[in-house]
Amino acid sequence: MKKTLLTLALGAWLACTAALAPAQSVSPAARPAQDYSASVATEWFSLALLLTQQTPGFSPPVASRALAYLGLTLYESVVPGMPQHQSLAGQLNELQSLPWAQPDEALHWPTVANAAMATMTRMMFPTASAENKARIDLLERSLPLKYSQDFDPNTVTPEITNRSETFGKLMAMAVMTWARTDGGHEAWGPLRRNQQNYVPPSGEGQWSATPPAFAPALLPWWGDVRPFVLKSGSACAAPPLPAYSEAPGSAFYREAQEVYRVSNQATQEQRQVALYWADDPLKTPTPAGHWAFIAGDLLKHNKASLAMAAQTYAQLNIAMADAFIAGWKIKYTVNLLRPVTYVQLVIDSNWVPTLMHTPPFPEYPSGHSVQSSAAAGVLEQVFGANKPFTDNTHNDRGWGPRTFASFKVAADEAAISRMYAGIHFRSGIEGGKVQGRCVAQQALALRFRR
Known about the structure:
Blueprint (H helix, E strand, L loop, with lengths): L1 H14 L23 H16 L5 H19 L30 H16 L5 H17 L11 H22 L71 H14 L3 H9 L9 H16 L4 H29 L4 H8 L20 H17 L5 E3 L10 E3 L2 H14 L5 H19 L6
Antiparallel strand pairs: 1-2
């Protein structure tokens, strides 16, 4: 019944608005999104990162997807108040249209964003704890009081508030209607209800479950989830890797030797790097959340506007979501064994990485490399290629802050951290960086401005 009512409400809204009307503008009496601070946006993403960390089922690919839909919802909810910008409808895969604001009715963009983000956060985290669901409700109620400079009751009338909340909620429902068709919405169960359990292919050099848990393959069909901007999960290929060989002196053997040696002899600094970038689910907001945290810090430091935050969160998180889809597509196509399997078979039967357990999915390419390189590519465009920054993501765990000379330097460190941890070959790291840069270019090609 609830779904039916939402569908009818959305249909009624779409029937009385232009589905996609880039030429429209809102009432001249309405202040543009540029006039408001990024506070509503950064507050909602801070909560989203907490929910990501504390909600079971939010593995790195699933987390990146949720953050991407949140970023898109934020942008689409306020883009009618950004006169030089346009909707991404018609540019993203299978997203043909979205609601657009009535040109003769003023909207208050922080209120629109607050309602849209509250609605989408509830729908993206349906399995959140009761305590965290209460946090969503509390944040929605408290933001107008906390940021009175953006929610001036002398200018924001009850009529404008109601109209703005309605538009924000309907935008979230419209985006969610599209999200439910991407193939990843049931990610904490089988990707498709009619899919059988995944059986990895067997053969020389092929991936098999790894110690100590020998867990089943994680999200083996994630590469078939509909990307946001890539034409398919295969659109950004990773370069060829060395031919599999167990012969001493072969290129593949040398890569395994390198992992074995570095893992066994890692310096204290290398061990710290490995742990800093691990970004384990249920302990941290995952790798995508790490970069979203960095972006939020920079937006706050730069006193960014709501308009800038909306575009930044949308572009960054779309790139990271597509990076996980692209990386997973190659992982389960190449299906390469992990270093722990190779080393135990060929070099040292008793060896296991000492810093962390090997994740339960194939080796090539490194997901950290793909995702971090994609994130860095977007943030370079937003904040500058040689922008030094301080990463405060793990301050609450006693691991920070850490300062980097540029986003690329940070991304490269995140990538190599997986070798220090003993869970990736160098070719997986370097190949992932190539793939990630390709994803970033695709996300940067989106036309946000008219």
